[in-house]
Amino acid sequence: MKKSRTASQGNGPKPASSPVTPKVGSYTAPAAFFVVLAILAYLSQAELGYHHGLFSAGIYEPYTDFRSIPKVGGEVNRVDAGREVYAAAGCVACHQPNGSGNPANGCPPLAKSDWVLAEGPARLIRIVLHGAQGPITVNGKPWNGNMTPFGPVLNDDQIANVLTFIRQSPEWGNNAGEVTPEMVKAVREKTASRTTQWTPAELEKIPETE
Amino acid sequence: MASSDWTIKPAPSTSEVDASLRWVVFTLTAKSALWLVVGSFLTLLASVKLHAPAMMSTASWLTYGRLLPAGWSALVYGFLGQAGVAVGLWLLARTCVQKLQTPLLVVLGGCLWNLGVLAGVIGILAGHSTGREWLEMPAGAMAVLVLGAGVIGTAGWVTYSARTESSPYPSAWFVLLALLAFVWFGTVALMMLGGEGARGVVQVLVQRWFAEGLLKLWLGALGLAVILHELPTLVNRPLASRQLALVGFWALVFFAPWGATGHGDPVPRWLVSAGIAGKTLATVGVLAIGLNLLKTLEGAWGTLFGTLRGRLIGVAALSYVGGGMLQFLGSLRSVSSVVGLTWFHAGLEWLLVGGGVMLAVIAVLPETFERATGRALAPGLISAHAWLTMVGVILVAIPLLLAGVVQGSALAKVAGTYMESLQGSMHFVRLSSLGFTLFFIGQFALLAGVLNVGREMLMDFVGIAKGWAAVPGDRKGVGARS
Amino acid sequence: MGGGSRRPERSGGSLVNSTPLVFLGILLGLSASWWGMVVAPKWQLGTGSTVVAKETGQHYPSARPGLAQQGAQIYRSEGCNTCHSQVVRPEGFGSDLGWGWGRRRTVAQDYLRDQPVMLGTVRVGPDLSNIGSRMGAGDTNAQPAMVAYHLKHLYHPRSVMAKSVMPAYPYLFEKRPVNGAPSVDALKLEGEFAPEAGFEVVPRPEATALVAYLLSLRSSISLPEAPVVPPPTNGVAVATNATANPAR
Fold this sequence. Notes:
The structure holds three protein chains of three kinds.
Chain A: H1 2-7, H2 31-50, H3 78-88, H4 91-95, H5 122-130, E1 132-138, E2 141-147, H6 156-168, H7 181-190, H8 200-205
Antiparallel strand pairs in A: 1-2
Helix pairs in contact in A: 3-6, 5-7, 6-7
Chain B: H1 5-8, H2 14-20, H3 22-51, H4 64-96, H5 103-125, H6 139-161, H7 171-193, H8 201-235, H9 242-255, H10 269-297, H11 301-305, H12 308-331, H13 333-339, H14 343-373, H15 379-411, H16 418-470, H17 475-479
Helix pairs in contact in B: 3-4, 3-5, 3-14, 3-16, 4-5, 4-7, 4-8, 4-14, 5-6, 6-7, 7-8, 8-12, 8-14, 9-10, 10-12, 12-14, 12-15, 14-15, 15-16
Chain C: H1 19-45, E1 51-52, E2 59-60, H2 66-77, H3 131-134, H4 143-155, E3 173-177, E4 199-203, H5 205-216, H6 238-244
Antiparallel strand pairs in C: 1-2, 3-4
Helix pairs in contact in C: 2-5, 4-5
């Protein structure tokens, strides 16, 4: 610390008289202060006491316990749920995010498609369950594609959701009826023995609404 | 150090204590003044960009999302991290009546610290922000900072251990807390966020706990150390109560960092409640300190606000206590449903950091500087700096708080739109830009003063070195002085 | 440390130095909040894993595609979280649900795969928790339209929203002379925002990645702890209209 020593020899102005460290008095807080402390302590205890949410990782505001969380299983928004399936199950790869299909591999469009917007989903459910191949006419234009079966990988709920999505997708302007898991289940049972893909010719013999 | 050494050690004189801090205080202050200019410039730029968003948009480092965290980091870590610690060490040495021990460690730690801040601020501007509030500096820079803080903190604690006053004035506790808190929060946060340490919202909890800890127990503790020391000194009275200071101290240590969560956060309900309970209990500390200061001041408000320094300390104390109470109020459901996720948050941070800590530090910085270096900053520059900073900080904090309330009320109107909520609050945000401008201009006054003293010291040093060379026989006499 | 007694003057130097005790005391105090606010939640939430969503049968949250992951790093790097939150608060907090910023509040599950999690603190800009699905309603906003919208918005926010205060990000784009046929990626800019004649603006990979990330932001699937409750039917019919309005 040689520098500090030398610098102390400088000609700069001398510091004013040193302030003394303040003393500490003997004031004692009044009882009212401790009452306020007690109130604050009570408030914090009450906050945890009333809103502990069972200390569970599954209770969020505004719910207080598991019973208070509404069950909305029956009111699933199939369009939103189906949109997720559409992306996750890989439909999007061929049919495209905008449902335009892909001429490169003969994959027909879904957006505004007469097959998709049919009165009933009977043919659509079959296509998803077992796949389809062969020449098909969509909106008057010929296509020749090959779709793999999704029956083994998607359950009835998922198929119902994804079909509802493609039939009602607001972003494509589609607006057809909902597909329920019950419809899918019925078709799945009826066609349980089928092992090959459908051909469009076969499908056209099946009524749209069974 | 043997455990009983200190009791028989002769107490050094005040001037010896001051002299032991000379270079430490000078270097830390000088570098902090540079960061203050840098930080206030970056925050001003960010603030202006809110009104002219298309301005300077061609360079990535000039985007608002980088300027603001970089500026905040420069102010908090670059300025307060050094000026606050310099003032804190001076208070510690004074209250412990002991020369600063191992000052070389502080100089070394200061170098590391500046290296860290430099790398951090450049890192943020270059796009390497971590995306976590208060922890934006890249982890490597933060690690250097923690290391530097550890080295500096060691010197502080060794000084405390070598004290000749067995129960030092309460300011000493807060300085010790601050020195330890930064290392603790920094180390834990870095370790828990590094690699795959924390998943999902646990990262947010670590980051918020870190920020809350730094705000209250590092910066806040430094600010309180100054306020508790200065306020009684300025009105020439004893601090009202040691007992209340103790209650405040421990309430803050135990409860303040719990305030990491609040209503609306995506964490389970019990964590929200724990956060609110923590904020409530931390209020105990704020109230204890507030009452202590109130009792100390009783009837002497005029004396305090009669001097410039007293005004700074008074506004700092009001900001601290007021900010603490606002934070408590803001945790209540009815209030947080309005002010949550609005400018209110920014306003509160400015009130607590800018008002509560920065004003306290700049109030004593000139004197600390003068006592340690033996040279005074020009009085005109001191008062220009003080006024511009004080008015600037108030003009930043209060309008932002109001902007938050206005914005929050508009956000709650389902029939309104988001744009309406933003535009309603922009008037206040514009006012805060005025505050940022004054704040920025003011910082040149401090920088000019410090640089001027630095020049004087250098010239003296050169002069003395020449004298030494001419009269070698004097060397021994000079060396024996301290 | 706080004892009121003064040091007995030169009483023989036998007092124990309390420094280590003080040190440990403070450390103990500091660690209290650590256990409660960090360690306990880490035990409870840190081991969380994806759940199978009832509606889709898919794991939630699913991993982001690679491009979107790169986009998340651009989002971090540019400090988007300085102005944008990614939190949907429950009913009664602002108009988060009323404006369709989300179909339900967000919970820990939504952030499971985020690194870093960027909740944000101040809404200078609108919340982005569901920006990937929010503007998808209405048949003009199909995916390609959304990508185009976001790119244009990033390039110059005021070209799509006159009063926006968002910074422009021209450095995420490239302005280049049209070489032969205009690029299919070129932004369709009009009026004052259009480049000089003979030039076109195309997104750099950073911009494309950022938009991929934005479109991957969706946390609207119903979860057991945060079910999607149908909005109340009284009052304004905001739930559907609001989602289509970018100004929200």
